[in-house]
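User: Please predict the structure of the protein below. I'd like the answer in structure-token form so I can feed it into my own downstream comparison script.

Assistant: Understood. Taking the following sequence of 295 residues as input:
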Amino acid sequence: EPLLRRSALAAGHTDAELRRAVRRGELQRLTPGVYLDADGVQLLDDVGRHRLLARTVGTGLRPAAAISHISAAVLHEFDVWQTDLALIHTTNGRSAGGRRGPTRYVHAAVLGGDVVQLDGVRVTSPARTVVDLARTLPVEEAVVVGDSALRRYPDLDFRAHFDAPRAGIAAARRVVGFLDARSESPGESLSRLRLRDAGLPVPVLQRTIHTPGGVFVARVDFFWEQWGLVGEFDGMVKYGTVDDVRAEKHREDALRDLGLQVVRWTWPELFRFDVVVERLRRAVHRSRSAPSHPL
């Protein structure tokens, strides 16, 4: 748990004692008035640090305000990819009074019923959070958050959030229309965007492949039925042991034995996706030259 300056002073400590603890490395100042012991800091990544600060800020908000935007996404435990986590975002519950400071970004907006309680902290609702980010973030970052939100809450209804004429609402409609809960990781979400931008037909996501006799073979990330083509985003995290690598090779061999073409790509290749597109095109050519697959 963080140590708050106001709590430390109320307990009889002084600012001089806090400063000495920081100099000795016993405490680290996360933000003005918020400290954490050195061991606790070691355990936090950027998202964990932001979550801790957002919860701390959230306990001191006025009744109409709430944690919002990327800070709300972090508290909802949605996936976050490359989004700036330097500032804690809140919405003040009023039509005016927004500001940006060194540690906090205060948005001005009336929230109405778009608020939920998470561990005693007021946070914008999942749907409101996704739409706010779809209005304000680059499309890649917004899609990663939105796909993750749909995986956690499959029945999210965004329609009510498109009624008010807010800045970026047209972009938010486009992002929300693209979201798909079947993307199971940030890498798969970005892959869908890359495939769309390359002009490729929309694949089936998370397709289960069986042999003609009905024996399960694999569940694949992307599948193009018309070409007998499997696409796999390889995040490289799932292969923890030699046995994992061997199992994945057997899985891919089983797919190829069914006459399917298999194309894989990695995180670095998401940023030079023309290489992957060419690989997919060669696989389509091989598929058209080969006997039809049995699926």
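That's the full token string. The mean pLDDT is 89.
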